[in-house]
Amino acid sequence: MVSEERRSVEVGGWTITPLSDGLFRLDGGAMWGVVPATLWRPLTPPDEDNTILLALNCFLAERDGVRVVLEGGIGTRWSEKHQRIYRIQFVDSLCASLARLGLAPEDIDHVVLSHCHWDHCGGLVDEVEGELVPVFPRAQVHAPQVEIDRCLEPDPVRAASYRADDLRPLLDRGLLQGFEGSQTLLEGLEAHVLGGHSDGVSVLLLGEGDDRAIFWADVVPTTHHIQPPYIMAYDLNAGLSYEVRREWIERAAAAGWLGLFYHDPEHPMARIAADGRRFVATPV
Ligand SMILES: [Zn+2]
Questions:
Q1: In this structure, are residues 176 and 141 in contact, taking their beta carbons and an 8 Å threshold?
Q2: First vs last C-alpha separation in the chain
Q3: Which of 42, 54, 186, 215 has the fewest Cβ atoms nearer than 10 Å?
Q4: What span, in angstroms and rounded, lies between the C-alpha atoms of 59 and 37?
Q5: Distance in angstroms (rounded) separating the CA atoms of residues 277 and 235
Q6: Right CATH number for 2-283 from 6.10.140.1670, 1.20.1250.20, 3.50.30.40, 3.60.15.10?
Q7: Residue 129 CA: distances (Å) to CA of 132, 133, 165
Q8: Number of helices (H) and strands (E), helices first, in the chain?
Q9: In the chain, where are the structural domains located?
């Protein structure tokens, strides 16, 4: 059931509504890895600087009076230089999206992060009068423990992908908790740490049995990335990335789960189905 006004979908007892934290652009070649440009250019047309448009689609999940935000956006704490490099477009924000639904930041009980790259958690901390403060003052923030560790103390290989200030203000206030392996975080909400793209990138499952939604995070960043070999050049461990993508894309297609796509500017929600040896996405 899709509500026209709210663009909400009911899945497994949850009401799921897309939110937006704006748009940005990354290099098309990096987003497509070894996939030939002749194949990806028609799917995600690049600008003259070879970047492609990417969304920052967070999601509100509500069940039994509990409000959860999936993923943390990119935020506004960006220098002019970095705004230019990543071509960040502040056309919407997490708080503005929630306000349109009649919700204030205080109304959010939990935030769940798939991993801690800056484009996935930058919107959880704001700078107010020179101090870094949580955007959602009451929310418990759940993130893969290995991602918290990498974010707070990144090594040279990973340093460009993390900013410790995205998490430290949450940690200092006791608002951050880590998860590992496969864990039920809340009733009807599971996190599965997969790795591949980053050390601890996770998928989030809402609902029960086959009546589920899966938040793909950067495991499957857009609906165009649903063929298992379409691995981003950003992925740290391409072999592991292929294995987890193949397993979970097959699983989602077989069960008919609703897919939630963080970086897809056109289709935040779509179902994946097998079509012979390939997969097709049907937007919801
Ligand atoms: Zn990432």
A1: yes
A2: 10
A3: 42
A4: 31
A5: 23
A6: 3.60.15.10
A7: 8, 10, 16
A8: 8, 17
A9: 2-283
Per residue, what are the HEC states of 210-251?
Answer: CEEEEECCCCCCCHHHCCCCCCCCCCCCHHHHHHHHHHHHHH
Distance 65 CA to ligand 1 centre (A): 30
pTM of the model: 0.95
Distance 4 CA to ligand 1 centre (A): 31
Question: What is the tens place of the pLDDT at every residue in 85-113?
Answer: 999 999 999 999 999 999 999 999 999 99
Q: 146-150, 151-155, 185-189, 271-275: which range is least confident on average? A: 151-155
Q: Are 82 and 119 in contact (CB under 8 A)?
A: no
Confirm if 283 and 267 have CB atoms less than 8 A apart: yes
User: How remote is the CA of residue 235 from the centroid of ligand 1, in Å?
Assistant: 8
Three-class SS state of 205: strand
> Quick one: DSSP state of residue 155?
-
Q: Which pLDDT tens digit goes with each residue over 17-67?
A: 999 999 999 999 999 999 999 999 999 999 999 999 999 999 999 999 999
Distance CA 145, CA 151 (A): 10
User: What is residue 196's three-state secondary structure?
Assistant: coil
Neighbours of 220 (CB within 10 A): 30
**According to DSSP H, which parts of the chain are helical?**
28-32, 37-40, 80-85, 94-100, 118-121, 145-152, 168-172, 238-255
- Give the pLDDT band (50/70/90) at residue 5: low
Q: Ligand 1 center to residue 132 CA distance, Å?
A: 23
**Ligand 1 centre from 198 Cα, in Å?**
7
Token digits for 233?
């050049």
C-alpha 244 to ligand 1 mean position (Å)? 15
